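Reviewer 2 asked us to include a model.

Predict the structure of this chain.
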Amino acid sequence: MSYVADAPIDAPDYRANSRFVGSWYWYDWANSAFVTTVGTVLYGPYITSIAKAAACPGQDTDLDCATNLHVLGIPIAPGSLAPYTTTFATILSAIVLIFVGAIVDRMDRPAKFLGACAWLGAASAAGLFFVTGTRWQLGAILMILATIFLGASLVTYDSLLNQIAAPNDRDRVSSRGWALGYLGGGLLLAVNLVLVTMKPFDLSTGMAVRISMLSAALWWAIFAIIPVRGMWALRSVTKPVTAADEGPVSGSLAQLSNTFRDLRRHHPQTMLFLLAYLFYNDGIQTVISSSSLYGAEELKFEQSQLIALILLVQFVAFGGALLFGAVAGRVGASKTVLCSLGLWTLIVAAAYFVPERKFVPFLILGIAIGIVLGGSQALSRSLYSQLVPKNREAEYFALYQAMERGTSWFGTLLFGVVYQLTHTYRLAIIALIIFFVLGGALLSRVDFREGIRQAGNEQPALV
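Predicted model (structure tokens):
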């Protein structure tokens, strides 16, 4: 049964704020180039090759020299460096971003903070151009910084969805933002595909990869100007729940403590959704971040083949995000996301059986990923927005963003550990099924109507 409650008295002026929606979309376009070109395609294989050069000079495998690479005295396999880097970035992000959310909720002009984080992240990503030879430590540090700044910017960006889109419009707005992001990321990746494949001007493969990563950083920095300038006039309606005379640090700490108490005591459905999201999003993010590594190291595909596949996934995901948004408009976002998790489980199971050097089965798998990828992510964002208490959007989206794209924790840790123990990525990929099963089971138990009521929000027609 559907119904629509009266909007709360202190709800944002959605009609007036709708003028910011067009500018809001562009940040998906801006940051997705980094997520796609660097995070999904190039960073994993490139940093692995740098790590192998440091730990295994003159060898084609890391099996005989796994103890030659050390982090704080702990030996690691070069093939595990990329997932371990993502894992560490997640642990650090989980701490940093929660504080960021409390700070953002006390800011009057959120676009200013969005721009600062975006440009610092882009600067960190641009530094990857200088990762050459055996400088795997520099590559790991820069990727960690870029990931944290990306997450900090997305805390602000996602929280603004509650100010610019009414509850009944959020599935559509969120889906279109994700779709535009996939389109932008795909366009730049197409250019980089030509660069890495053709290697004009006698470029080496390493130089072509480094230029491609630099181009993603510049894309991020330049296109972030549009949402920052376009939403500069958007003022925060947040009312901090701590004393007005507290400073930004002490006030944020007090507000953070209040957030956890409030979540546990008054918003159990929101907490259950976050727990479900922790599991299934970790599975999604690990598949995304490890796909090129799996294809290169386990299935023996060339870098150009992997970029072509990810490029195809980007454009399929553009349509997939819009398709899932339309489906959610008919059956509700919660049912649509649950169905997508079933499809993710089948996709991961099929990945285990893809034969080595057989590109067509891997291509079909990539198309399936593209169809479910955008929809599951976009609708999760809009679903969560309904469960966020009024005037505390950044605080709660900080919790959400700590588990968002590029910040998987348990998934990448499991992926890296399974590889280190078995030296096969096939067992590492199949182990990810547990995240979709657990996430789906928990999500099915969320009472969204009750959660929306607990948050004091307007009930959408469908959920």
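The first helix runs from residue 14 to 17. The CA atoms of residues 274 and 400 lie 7 Å apart. We have added this to the supplementary material.
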